[in-house]
Design brief:
The protein is an all-beta fold and about 190 residues long. It has one helix and 16 strands. Helices cover about 0% and strands about 55% of the residues. Strand 8 and strand 9 form a beta hairpin. The chain is globular, with a radius of gyration of 21 Å.
Length: about 190
């Protein structure tokens, strides 16, 4: 079993603290004039996505967590589970929909996603920073609505997500959406 010390921390690494797996978001080595050195960290719990601040003594050891990213195809969600298929082995797996509900807002069925596995268990769906989706419903634009006119209106996307789009966006158009903020980026 591999161990990792605070000296080996890197943003994006996964460690196990008190039996819980965390992703390192930020870390800072601090050497005060008096007393021992320590490391301030910002960690995201992989189980539920909560972010915590934690301080560790310099040189403290943790169990390193093996992570792997695999290409998967999102098949469908049935209300309780989200179903995915490995693009290479065609093996299917089901993950509780509640664990990946944020990512599913931007995944139409049959789309390719990166699945993060932690210690050979599916943990998270990793999305690109922006995705192209079709607008399935929005109010029609009015004469005079142009790129320069200010204002937004709600639009329902093919995944069921509702976002704010500029007035000139029409039903049936494909748009780019930022998956981190959920905001309209541009027409596709």
């Amino acid at each position: 079993m591999s161990t990792i010390t605070t000296n080996q921390f890197k943003n994006g690494n996964h460690i196990e603290v008190d039996g819980t797996v965390f992703k390192i978001l930020e870390f800072q080595h601090v050497k005060p004039g008096k007393g021992g050195a320590f490391v301030r960290t910002k960690l995201r719990r992989t189980a539920d996505g909560n972010v915590i601040d934690r301080t560790f003594r310099a040189g403290e050891k943790f169990r390193g967590v093996r992570t792997e990213s695999r290409k998967m195809q999102f098949l469908y969600a049935d209300g309780s589970d989200a179903h995915f298929m490995d693009s290479e082995s065609f093996e299917q797996l089901a993950i509780p929909e509640e664990r990946v509900k944020d990512a599913l807002r931007w995944c139409p069925p049959s789309s390719e996603v990166e699945m993060l596995f932690i210690d050979d268990q599916p943990a998270d769906v990793q999305l690109p920073s922006a995705v192209e989706l079709a607008v399935t419903h929005t109010d029609p634009g009015l004469r005079g609505d142009s790129v320069s006119s200010a204002g937004n209106k709600p639009a329902t996307l093919e995944t069921g997500a509702v976002i704010q789009v500029p007035l000139f966006v029409e039903q049936g158009e494909r748009i780019r959406v930022d998956t981190r903020s959920g905001e309209y980026v541009a027409r596709a």
